[in-house]
Amino acid sequence: MNNDLPKPRTEPVEKTPSRRGFLGVAAAGMAGILLAPGVRLIEIAQAAPAPGGASSKVRWGMLIDSGKCASGCTDCVTACNTENGLSGGTLPTDSQWIRKIEIKELRSGKTHSLPMMCQHCAEPPCVDVCPTGASFKRADGIVLVDKHICIGCRYCVMACPYKARSFVHEPLSNQKTDVPRGMGTVEGCTMCVHKVDKGESPACVTACSDAGHGAILFGDLNNPESEISKRVASYPSRQIREDLNLNTGVRYSGI
To answer: What is the pLDDT of residues 57-76, one digit of tens each?
Structure first.
């Protein structure tokens, strides 16, 4: 475990990119309008209006307590697979939106078991490298993939430092109505956006709570009165790969 990582960023985060706004720019580009040299895709997306249903006043996030996350427990993984219609396999061709990893502190030898998923970065590398705008970040901080315009180039897979994205290799059947998927596209943790938009918690959070562990706390990081904000303000927490300055929406305590 690297104990020399810098402290989490505290400066304000820029407003989020919009898929709808970006698509308008992309369509114009396809008609013959070229981007100016040095202008990145993410900068174009950030200038667009926010999508309906998501507000920049909110930033959804998770705080994971490693002291409550038991080694060998996979309740969160099972819940994610069930909710999103994933096979639960561990082959390279299987989609894994959340997985358990084990880390070890070199000085003390202490080990931690952590769930690893898309970290829903404020500065997502996957959005920056996407050539079509399929990878986008909602105004409320949730990072998603639009399967209708994903061309399966997998640039986002290579750009993600958390290995949090999967490529769908095989035809799919019996899909979940709220979770569209498709062969030849990239996918990853959506923070159960279909549940969040209904005022519910992500499946992994609910499963962890129902099992009596309570290791995953979900809430609005922008609301100082929310439980997650109070916990982050009162107790030390870390971001994975803080050195990349991505300002992740998923934080970890006890590591």
So the answer is: 999 999 999 989 988 899 99
Query: Which of left, alpha, beta for 181 (phi over 0: left; psi -120 to 50: alpha)?
Result: beta
Q: What is the pLDDT of residues 102-135, one digit of tens each?
A: 887 778 878 888 999 999 999 999 999 999 999 9
Per the structure, the count of domains in the chain is 1
Please spell the DSSP secondary structure of 25-50, one letter per residue.
HHHHHHTTPPPPTT--HHHHHHTSPP
pTM of the predicted model, to two decimals?
A: 0.77
Range of the structural domain that residue 188 is part of: 19-253
Structure tokens at 83: 């909710």
User: Measuring CA to CA, how many Å separate 124 from each of 52, 54, 118, 137, 202?
Assistant: 21, 17, 10, 8, 20
**CB contact set of 6 (below 8 Å; sequence gap of 6+):** 242, 243
Can you name the residues that pair with 116 across neighbouring β-strands? 99
Distance CA 244, CA 5 (A): 10
Query: Would you say residue 59 lies in a domain?
Result: yes
Name every residue whose Cβ is closer than 8 Å to that of residue 105 and which is 6 or more positions away in sequence.
Answer: 1, 3, 111, 112
CATH classification at residue 116? 3.30.70.20
Is 4 inside any structural domain?
Answer: no
